[in-house]
Amino acid sequence: MxxxxxxxxxxxxxxxxxxxxxxxxxxxxxxxxxGFAGASVDRIAAHxxxxxxxxxxxFKSKAALYREIIRDMFxxxxxxxxxxxxxxATPADKIREYVDAFAIEAAAHPHFPPIWFREVAEGGAxxxxxxxxxxxxxxxxxxxxxxxxxxxxxxxxxxxxxVHAGIVAPVLLYFATAGIRARLExxxxxxxxxxxxxxxxxxxxxxxxxxxxxxxx
Amino acid sequence: MxxxxxxxxxxxxxxxxxxxxxxxxxxxxxxxxxGFAGASVDRIAAHxxxxxxxxxxxFKSKAALYREIIRDMFxxxxxxxxxxxxxxATPADKIREYVDAFAIEAAAHPHFPPIWFREVAEGGAxxxxxxxxxxxxxxxxxxxxxxxxxxxxxxxxxxxxxVHAGIVAPVLLYFATAGIRARLExxxxxxxxxxxxxxxxxxxxxxxxxxxxxxxx
DNA sequence: GTCTATAAATAGATAGAC
DNA sequence: GTCTATCTATTTATAGAC
Lengths: 217, 217
Known about the structure:
2 copies of one chain form a homodimer.
Chain A: H1 16-38, H2 41-47, H3 52-58, H4 62-86, H5 91-108, H6 112-121, H7 129-151, H8 160-176, H9 178-186, H10 197-212
The first copy, chain A, binds a DNA duplex through residues 9, 11-14, 16, 19, 40-42, 50-58, 61-62.
Protein backbone atom coordinates (compact mmCIF):
# COMPACT_ATOMS: atom_id res chain seq x y z
CA MET A 1 0.00 0.00 0.00
CA UNK A 2 1.47 3.31 -1.10
CA UNK A 3 1.69 5.95 1.52
CA UNK A 4 -0.23 9.06 0.51
CA UNK A 5 1.44 12.27 1.64
CA UNK A 6 -0.88 14.36 3.73
CA UNK A 7 -0.69 17.88 5.10
CA UNK A 8 0.46 20.85 3.04
CA UNK A 9 1.72 20.04 -0.45
CA UNK A 10 5.49 20.01 -0.82
CA UNK A 11 5.58 19.42 -4.58
CA UNK A 12 8.67 20.95 -6.20
CA UNK A 13 9.25 23.46 -3.45
CA UNK A 14 12.89 24.32 -4.04
CA UNK A 15 12.92 26.25 -0.76
CA UNK A 16 11.11 29.54 -0.84
CA UNK A 17 13.69 31.39 1.21
CA UNK A 18 16.46 30.44 -1.21
CA UNK A 19 14.37 31.52 -4.18
CA UNK A 20 13.66 34.84 -2.55
CA UNK A 21 17.34 35.29 -1.90
CA UNK A 22 18.27 34.51 -5.51
CA UNK A 23 15.77 37.09 -6.75
CA UNK A 24 17.05 39.61 -4.24
CA UNK A 25 20.66 39.17 -5.34
CA UNK A 26 19.81 39.34 -9.03
CA UNK A 27 17.73 42.45 -8.45
CA UNK A 28 20.50 44.16 -6.52
CA UNK A 29 22.89 43.63 -9.41
CA UNK A 30 20.36 44.80 -11.97
CA UNK A 31 19.37 47.93 -10.02
CA UNK A 32 23.03 48.77 -9.44
CA UNK A 33 23.84 48.47 -13.12
CA UNK A 34 20.77 50.18 -14.59
CA GLY A 35 18.94 52.06 -11.86
CA PHE A 36 15.34 51.66 -10.83
CA ALA A 37 13.75 52.79 -14.07
CA GLY A 38 16.33 51.03 -16.23
CA ALA A 39 16.00 47.70 -14.50
CA SER A 40 13.70 45.13 -16.02
CA VAL A 41 11.88 42.53 -13.95
CA ASP A 42 12.26 40.13 -16.86
CA ARG A 43 16.03 40.43 -16.74
CA ILE A 44 16.08 40.10 -12.96
CA ALA A 45 14.07 36.89 -13.09
CA ALA A 46 16.09 35.46 -15.96
CA HIS A 47 19.34 36.26 -14.20
CA UNK A 48 18.03 34.45 -11.13
CA UNK A 49 17.13 31.46 -13.28
CA UNK A 50 13.46 31.96 -12.51
CA UNK A 51 10.32 33.36 -13.95
CA UNK A 52 9.11 36.92 -13.84
CA UNK A 53 5.95 35.96 -12.01
CA UNK A 54 8.04 34.88 -9.04
CA UNK A 55 9.01 38.45 -8.39
CA UNK A 56 5.39 39.40 -7.92
CA UNK A 57 4.81 36.35 -5.79
CA UNK A 58 7.76 36.85 -3.43
CA PHE A 59 7.72 40.63 -3.48
CA LYS A 60 4.79 42.89 -4.05
CA SER A 61 6.06 44.86 -7.00
CA LYS A 62 9.21 46.14 -8.65
CA ALA A 63 9.09 49.20 -6.41
CA ALA A 64 8.66 47.14 -3.25
CA LEU A 65 11.61 44.96 -4.23
CA TYR A 66 13.72 48.04 -4.81
CA ARG A 67 12.74 49.59 -1.49
CA GLU A 68 13.70 46.36 0.25
CA ILE A 69 17.15 46.49 -1.32
CA ILE A 70 17.63 50.11 -0.31
CA ARG A 71 16.47 49.35 3.21
CA ASP A 72 18.86 46.40 3.42
CA MET A 73 21.76 48.61 2.36
CA PHE A 74 21.21 51.37 4.87
CA UNK A 75 20.48 48.78 7.56
CA UNK A 76 23.83 47.13 6.86
CA UNK A 77 25.67 50.45 7.03
CA UNK A 78 23.70 51.51 10.08
CA UNK A 79 24.19 48.30 12.02
CA UNK A 80 27.94 48.23 11.47
CA UNK A 81 28.38 51.89 12.20
CA UNK A 82 26.34 51.94 15.38
CA UNK A 83 28.34 48.96 16.58
CA UNK A 84 31.46 51.02 16.10
CA UNK A 85 30.07 53.95 18.07
CA UNK A 86 29.08 51.72 20.97
CA UNK A 87 32.45 49.96 21.32
CA UNK A 88 35.03 50.60 24.01
CA ALA A 89 37.69 51.95 21.63
CA THR A 90 39.14 55.45 21.79
CA PRO A 91 37.38 58.15 19.78
CA ALA A 92 40.23 58.18 17.26
CA ASP A 93 39.99 54.45 16.75
CA LYS A 94 36.25 54.70 16.40
CA ILE A 95 36.72 57.20 13.58
CA ARG A 96 39.11 54.78 11.90
CA GLU A 97 36.55 52.03 12.26
CA TYR A 98 33.78 54.29 11.02
CA VAL A 99 35.70 54.88 7.82
CA ASP A 100 36.52 51.21 7.50
CA ALA A 101 32.89 50.24 8.03
CA PHE A 102 31.83 51.79 4.74
CA ALA A 103 34.75 50.26 2.88
CA ILE A 104 34.04 46.82 4.32
CA GLU A 105 30.37 46.93 3.43
CA ALA A 106 31.06 48.32 -0.03
CA ALA A 107 33.64 45.63 -0.73
CA ALA A 108 31.30 42.91 0.51
CA HIS A 109 28.34 44.23 -1.46
CA PRO A 110 29.51 45.61 -4.83
CA HIS A 111 26.03 46.89 -5.59
CA PHE A 112 26.00 49.25 -2.61
CA PRO A 113 28.05 52.12 -4.07
CA PRO A 114 26.15 52.47 -7.37
CA ILE A 115 22.80 52.19 -5.63
CA TRP A 116 23.86 54.74 -3.04
CA PHE A 117 24.94 57.17 -5.78
CA ARG A 118 21.71 56.67 -7.68
CA GLU A 119 19.57 57.16 -4.62
CA VAL A 120 21.40 60.41 -3.85
CA ALA A 121 20.73 61.57 -7.40
CA GLU A 122 17.10 60.59 -7.06
CA GLY A 123 16.80 62.86 -4.03
CA GLY A 124 15.78 59.96 -1.82
CA ALA A 125 12.56 59.36 -3.71
CA UNK A 126 12.48 55.67 -2.82
CA UNK A 127 13.33 56.00 0.86
CA UNK A 128 10.67 54.81 3.25
CA UNK A 129 10.59 56.06 6.84
CA UNK A 130 12.48 53.03 8.20
CA UNK A 131 15.32 53.76 5.79
CA UNK A 132 15.46 57.43 6.70
CA UNK A 133 15.64 56.29 10.31
CA UNK A 134 18.69 54.18 9.43
CA UNK A 135 20.33 57.16 7.75
CA UNK A 136 19.64 59.19 10.86
CA UNK A 137 21.20 56.42 12.96
CA UNK A 138 24.36 56.58 10.88
CA UNK A 139 24.67 60.32 11.41
CA UNK A 140 23.84 60.06 15.10
CA UNK A 141 26.54 57.42 15.53
CA UNK A 142 29.15 59.71 14.04
CA UNK A 143 27.86 62.60 16.10
CA UNK A 144 28.22 60.51 19.27
CA UNK A 145 31.82 59.64 18.39
CA UNK A 146 32.69 63.26 17.73
CA UNK A 147 30.96 64.44 20.91
CA UNK A 148 32.83 61.87 22.96
CA UNK A 149 36.14 63.01 21.47
CA UNK A 150 35.32 66.63 22.16
CA UNK A 151 34.35 65.86 25.72
CA UNK A 152 37.64 64.04 26.26
CA UNK A 153 39.50 67.01 24.78
CA UNK A 154 40.81 64.86 21.96
CA UNK A 155 38.74 66.38 19.17
CA UNK A 156 37.72 69.88 18.29
CA UNK A 157 34.07 70.26 17.32
CA UNK A 158 33.24 69.94 13.64
CA UNK A 159 29.82 69.66 12.03
CA UNK A 160 29.16 65.89 11.73
CA UNK A 161 27.56 66.23 8.32
CA UNK A 162 30.74 67.73 6.92
CA VAL A 163 32.80 64.97 8.48
CA HIS A 164 30.41 62.32 7.21
CA ALA A 165 30.42 63.71 3.67
CA GLY A 166 34.21 63.80 3.70
CA ILE A 167 34.27 60.10 4.55
CA VAL A 168 31.44 58.38 2.72
CA ALA A 169 31.52 60.29 -0.55
CA PRO A 170 35.21 59.63 -1.36
CA VAL A 171 35.15 56.03 -0.14
CA LEU A 172 32.09 55.03 -2.13
CA LEU A 173 33.35 57.03 -5.11
CA TYR A 174 36.46 54.88 -5.09
CA PHE A 175 34.43 51.69 -5.33
CA ALA A 176 31.99 53.01 -7.90
CA THR A 177 34.61 54.36 -10.29
CA ALA A 178 36.76 51.30 -10.88
CA GLY A 179 35.61 51.12 -14.50
CA ILE A 180 35.97 54.81 -15.26
CA ARG A 181 39.39 54.94 -13.63
CA ALA A 182 40.63 52.09 -15.78
CA ARG A 183 39.41 53.96 -18.85
CA LEU A 184 41.10 57.16 -17.74
CA GLU A 185 44.34 55.32 -17.21
CA UNK A 186 44.08 54.02 -20.77
CA UNK A 187 43.84 57.59 -22.04
CA UNK A 188 47.04 58.59 -20.30
CA UNK A 189 46.10 59.73 -16.80
CA UNK A 190 48.42 58.01 -14.35
CA UNK A 191 48.01 56.71 -10.83
CA UNK A 192 44.22 56.48 -10.98
CA UNK A 193 43.56 52.79 -11.62
CA UNK A 194 46.20 51.24 -9.42
CA UNK A 195 45.17 52.67 -6.07
CA UNK A 196 44.02 49.97 -3.72
CA UNK A 197 41.35 49.96 -1.08
CA UNK A 198 43.75 50.05 1.89
CA UNK A 199 45.38 53.20 0.54
CA UNK A 200 42.05 54.95 0.16
CA UNK A 201 40.87 53.96 3.61
CA UNK A 202 44.15 55.00 5.21
CA UNK A 203 44.03 58.32 3.41
CA UNK A 204 40.49 59.15 4.47
CA UNK A 205 41.22 58.09 8.05
CA UNK A 206 44.28 60.32 8.15
CA UNK A 207 42.50 63.35 6.73
CA UNK A 208 39.46 62.93 8.96
CA UNK A 209 41.54 62.56 12.11
CA UNK A 210 43.75 65.47 11.10
CA UNK A 211 40.61 67.54 10.90
CA UNK A 212 39.08 66.34 14.15
CA UNK A 213 42.28 66.46 16.15
CA UNK A 214 42.67 70.09 15.20
CA UNK A 215 45.86 69.69 13.22
CA UNK A 216 44.35 71.81 10.48
CA UNK A 217 44.43 75.53 11.17
CA MET B 1 1.87 93.10 -57.20
CA UNK B 2 2.61 91.04 -54.14
CA UNK B 3 6.21 90.51 -53.40
CA UNK B 4 7.02 86.79 -53.39
CA UNK B 5 9.63 85.87 -50.82
CA UNK B 6 12.54 84.10 -52.38
CA UNK B 7 15.49 82.22 -50.96
CA UNK B 8 15.20 79.75 -48.12
CA UNK B 9 11.75 79.44 -46.52
CA UNK B 10 11.33 81.27 -43.19
CA UNK B 11 7.77 80.17 -42.45
CA UNK B 12 7.09 79.98 -38.67
CA UNK B 13 10.70 79.57 -37.78
CA UNK B 14 10.67 80.51 -34.10
CA UNK B 15 14.44 80.46 -34.14
CA UNK B 16 15.98 77.05 -34.33
CA UNK B 17 18.75 77.82 -31.87
CA UNK B 18 16.29 78.89 -29.19
CA UNK B 19 14.19 75.76 -29.73
CA UNK B 20 17.26 73.60 -29.41
CA UNK B 21 18.15 75.39 -26.22
CA UNK B 22 14.68 74.89 -24.75
CA UNK B 23 14.84 71.18 -25.48
CA UNK B 24 18.32 70.99 -24.02
CA UNK B 25 17.27 72.66 -20.78
CA UNK B 26 14.14 70.55 -20.41
CA UNK B 27 16.15 67.40 -21.07
CA UNK B 28 18.78 68.33 -18.50
CA UNK B 29 16.10 68.71 -15.84
CA UNK B 30 14.41 65.45 -16.83
CA UNK B 31 17.63 63.43 -16.92
CA UNK B 32 18.69 64.88 -13.57
CA UNK B 33 15.39 63.96 -11.97
CA UNK B 34 14.86 60.53 -13.50
CA GLY B 35 18.08 59.34 -15.05
CA PHE B 36 18.66 58.25 -18.62
CA ALA B 37 16.37 55.24 -18.61
CA GLY B 38 13.71 56.93 -16.52
CA ALA B 39 13.53 60.02 -18.68
CA SER B 40 10.82 60.15 -21.32
CA VAL B 41 11.24 62.04 -24.58
CA ASP B 42 7.54 62.80 -24.45
CA ARG B 43 7.92 64.54 -21.10
CA ILE B 44 11.01 66.41 -22.23
CA ALA B 45 9.21 67.76 -25.28
CA ALA B 46 6.08 68.64 -23.34
CA HIS B 47 8.10 70.43 -20.69
CA UNK B 48 9.79 72.44 -23.43
CA UNK B 49 6.40 73.32 -24.87
CA UNK B 50 7.21 71.40 -28.03
CA UNK B 51 6.57 68.14 -29.76
CA UNK B 52 8.43 64.89 -29.36
CA UNK B 53 9.44 64.82 -33.00
CA UNK B 54 11.51 67.97 -32.47
CA UNK B 55 13.91 66.04 -30.29
CA UNK B 56 14.69 63.72 -33.17
CA UNK B 57 14.97 66.64 -35.55
CA UNK B 58 17.34 68.73 -33.43
CA PHE B 59 19.20 65.84 -31.87
CA LYS B 60 19.70 62.42 -33.33
CA SER B 61 18.20 60.33 -30.55
CA LYS B 62 17.53 60.25 -26.83
CA ALA B 63 21.01 58.82 -26.28
CA ALA B 64 22.67 61.49 -28.42
CA LEU B 65 20.84 64.21 -26.50
CA TYR B 66 21.97 62.72 -23.21
CA ARG B 67 25.57 62.45 -24.36
CA GLU B 68 25.49 66.11 -25.37
CA ILE B 69 24.33 67.08 -21.89
CA ILE B 70 27.05 65.01 -20.24
CA ARG B 71 29.65 66.47 -22.55
CA ASP B 72 28.45 69.99 -21.77
CA MET B 73 28.75 69.33 -18.05
CA PHE B 74 32.29 67.99 -18.09
CA UNK B 75 33.28 70.72 -20.56
CA UNK B 76 31.99 73.35 -18.16
CA UNK B 77 33.88 71.80 -15.23
CA UNK B 78 36.97 71.28 -17.37
CA UNK B 79 37.05 74.77 -18.81
CA UNK B 80 36.70 76.47 -15.44
CA UNK B 81 39.20 74.22 -13.74
CA UNK B 82 41.87 74.49 -16.41
CA UNK B 83 41.51 78.26 -16.24
CA UNK B 84 42.27 78.03 -12.55
CA UNK B 85 45.37 75.92 -13.11
CA UNK B 86 46.71 78.34 -15.72
CA UNK B 87 46.29 81.48 -13.62
CA UNK B 88 49.05 83.41 -11.87
CA ALA B 89 47.78 82.72 -8.35
CA THR B 90 49.73 80.85 -5.68
CA PRO B 91 49.26 77.08 -5.52
CA ALA B 92 47.22 77.43 -2.32
CA ASP B 93 44.91 79.94 -3.93
CA LYS B 94 44.57 77.73 -6.96
CA ILE B 95 43.40 74.91 -4.72
CA ARG B 96 40.84 77.25 -3.17
CA GLU B 97 39.66 78.22 -6.64
CA TYR B 98 39.61 74.60 -7.76
CA VAL B 99 37.21 73.78 -4.94
CA ASP B 100 35.13 76.84 -5.66
CA ALA B 101 34.95 75.99 -9.35
CA PHE B 102 32.83 72.92 -8.70
CA ALA B 103 30.58 74.76 -6.28
CA ILE B 104 30.08 77.62 -8.73
CA GLU B 105 29.19 75.35 -11.62
CA ALA B 106 26.94 73.17 -9.45
CA ALA B 107 25.10 76.23 -8.14
CA ALA B 108 24.70 77.65 -11.64
CA HIS B 109 23.52 74.33 -13.10
CA PRO B 110 21.36 72.46 -10.57
CA HIS B 111 21.20 69.42 -12.83
CA PHE B 112 24.96 68.88 -12.71
CA PRO B 113 25.22 67.11 -9.34
CA PRO B 114 22.46 64.53 -9.91
CA ILE B 115 23.68 63.79 -13.41
CA TRP B 116 27.26 63.45 -12.17
CA PHE B 117 26.15 61.01 -9.45
CA ARG B 118 24.12 58.97 -11.90
CA GLU B 119 26.93 58.81 -14.39
CA VAL B 120 29.28 57.57 -11.69
CA ALA B 121 26.76 54.88 -10.81
CA GLU B 122 26.43 53.96 -14.46
CA GLY B 123 30.16 53.35 -14.62
CA GLY B 124 30.59 55.96 -17.33
CA ALA B 125 28.52 54.01 -19.84
CA UNK B 126 27.43 57.14 -21.69
CA UNK B 127 30.80 58.85 -21.85
CA UNK B 128 32.17 59.41 -25.32
CA UNK B 129 35.89 59.92 -25.88
CA UNK B 130 35.62 63.72 -25.90
CA UNK B 131 34.04 63.61 -22.46
CA UNK B 132 36.65 61.26 -21.09
CA UNK B 133 39.21 63.72 -22.42
CA UNK B 134 37.52 66.48 -20.41
CA UNK B 135 37.63 64.34 -17.28
CA UNK B 136 41.31 63.73 -17.91
CA UNK B 137 41.80 67.48 -18.31
CA UNK B 138 40.23 68.08 -14.92
CA UNK B 139 42.56 65.61 -13.24
CA UNK B 140 45.59 66.93 -15.13
CA UNK B 141 44.77 70.46 -14.00
CA UNK B 142 44.73 69.40 -10.38
CA UNK B 143 47.91 67.41 -10.89
CA UNK B 144 49.59 70.50 -12.33
CA UNK B 145 48.58 72.59 -9.32
CA UNK B 146 49.86 69.98 -6.87
CA UNK B 147 53.11 69.54 -8.80
CA UNK B 148 53.68 73.29 -8.81
CA UNK B 149 53.09 73.45 -5.07
CA UNK B 150 55.49 70.59 -4.47
CA UNK B 151 58.13 72.16 -6.64
CA UNK B 152 57.81 75.42 -4.70
CA UNK B 153 58.13 73.46 -1.44
CA UNK B 154 54.66 74.58 -0.38
CA UNK B 155 52.92 71.22 -0.77
CA UNK B 156 53.87 67.70 0.06
CA UNK B 157 53.06 65.19 -2.67
CA UNK B 158 49.67 63.49 -2.49
CA UNK B 159 47.98 61.33 -5.10
CA UNK B 160 45.82 63.75 -7.14
CA UNK B 161 42.97 61.28 -7.43
CA UNK B 162 42.64 61.15 -3.64
CA VAL B 163 42.71 64.92 -3.46
CA HIS B 164 40.19 65.21 -6.26
CA ALA B 165 37.82 62.69 -4.67
CA GLY B 166 38.05 64.55 -1.37
CA ILE B 167 36.94 67.73 -3.10
CA VAL B 168 34.38 66.87 -5.73
CA ALA B 169 32.50 64.10 -3.95
CA PRO B 170 31.63 66.09 -0.81
CA VAL B 171 30.89 69.32 -2.69
CA LEU B 172 28.53 67.72 -5.18
CA LEU B 173 27.02 65.61 -2.43
CA TYR B 174 26.09 68.79 -0.62
CA PHE B 175 24.19 70.11 -3.64
CA ALA B 176 22.54 66.81 -4.48
CA THR B 177 21.25 66.12 -0.98
CA ALA B 178 19.31 69.28 -0.21
CA GLY B 179 16.04 67.34 -0.26
CA ILE B 180 17.23 64.40 1.79
CA ARG B 181 18.87 66.68 4.35
CA ALA B 182 15.65 68.58 4.85
CA ARG B 183 13.85 65.28 5.43
CA LEU B 184 16.51 64.15 7.92
CA GLU B 185 16.17 67.40 9.80
CA UNK B 186 12.42 66.79 10.03
CA UNK B 187 13.11 63.42 11.67
CA UNK B 188 15.26 64.99 14.37
CA UNK B 189 18.81 65.10 13.03
CA UNK B 190 20.18 68.55 13.65
CA UNK B 191 22.56 70.80 11.75
CA UNK B 192 22.14 69.03 8.42
CA UNK B 193 19.71 71.23 6.51
CA UNK B 194 20.96 74.64 7.54
CA UNK B 195 24.52 74.42 6.28
CA UNK B 196 25.16 76.89 3.51
CA UNK B 197 27.30 76.64 0.44
CA UNK B 198 30.03 78.99 1.70
CA UNK B 199 30.53 76.87 4.81
CA UNK B 200 30.92 73.70 2.76
CA UNK B 201 33.34 75.30 0.34
CA UNK B 202 35.41 76.82 3.16
CA UNK B 203 35.50 73.47 4.97
CA UNK B 204 36.67 71.51 1.93
CA UNK B 205 39.26 74.17 1.11
CA UNK B 206 40.61 74.05 4.65
CA UNK B 207 40.81 70.26 4.75
CA UNK B 208 42.41 69.99 1.33
CA UNK B 209 45.02 72.62 2.09
CA UNK B 210 45.72 71.09 5.48
CA UNK B 211 46.44 67.86 3.69
CA UNK B 212 48.58 69.36 0.93
CA UNK B 213 50.52 71.70 3.20
CA UNK B 214 51.54 68.74 5.31
CA UNK B 215 49.75 69.82 8.45
CA UNK B 216 48.38 66.31 8.80
CA UNK B 217 50.83 63.83 10.21
C1' DG C 1 5.73 27.57 -5.54
C1' DT C 2 6.46 27.81 -10.13
C1' DC C 3 5.20 28.11 -14.67
C1' DT C 4 2.94 30.02 -19.49
C1' DA C 5 0.24 33.25 -21.74
C1' DT C 6 -1.43 37.55 -22.12
C1' DA C 7 -3.36 42.01 -20.91
C1' DA C 8 -2.61 46.94 -20.90
C1' DA C 9 0.22 50.75 -20.80
C1' DT C 10 4.12 53.24 -22.34
C1' DA C 11 8.47 53.69 -24.54
C1' DG C 12 11.60 55.39 -28.55
C1' DA C 13 11.50 56.38 -33.14
C1' DT C 14 9.76 57.65 -37.94
C1' DA C 15 6.62 59.09 -42.02
C1' DG C 16 4.47 62.53 -44.02
C1' DA C 17 1.45 66.75 -44.02
C1' DC C 18 1.94 71.63 -43.66
C1' DG D 1 10.91 73.79 -38.50
C1' DT D 2 7.07 72.02 -36.52
C1' DC D 3 3.21 69.21 -36.13
C1' DT D 4 -0.03 64.70 -35.99
C1' DA D 5 -0.45 59.99 -36.45
C1' DT D 6 1.39 55.67 -36.11
C1' DC D 7 4.61 51.63 -35.97
C1' DT D 8 7.01 48.46 -33.17
C1' DA D 9 9.23 46.94 -29.14
C1' DT D 10 9.30 46.65 -24.38
C1' DT D 11 7.44 47.31 -19.96
C1' DT D 12 4.96 46.10 -15.46
C1' DA D 13 1.65 43.29 -13.85
C1' DT D 14 -1.85 39.53 -13.54
C1' DA D 15 -4.79 35.23 -14.56
C1' DG D 16 -4.82 30.65 -14.45
C1' DA D 17 -2.79 25.91 -15.32
C1' DC D 18 -0.02 22.56 -12.91
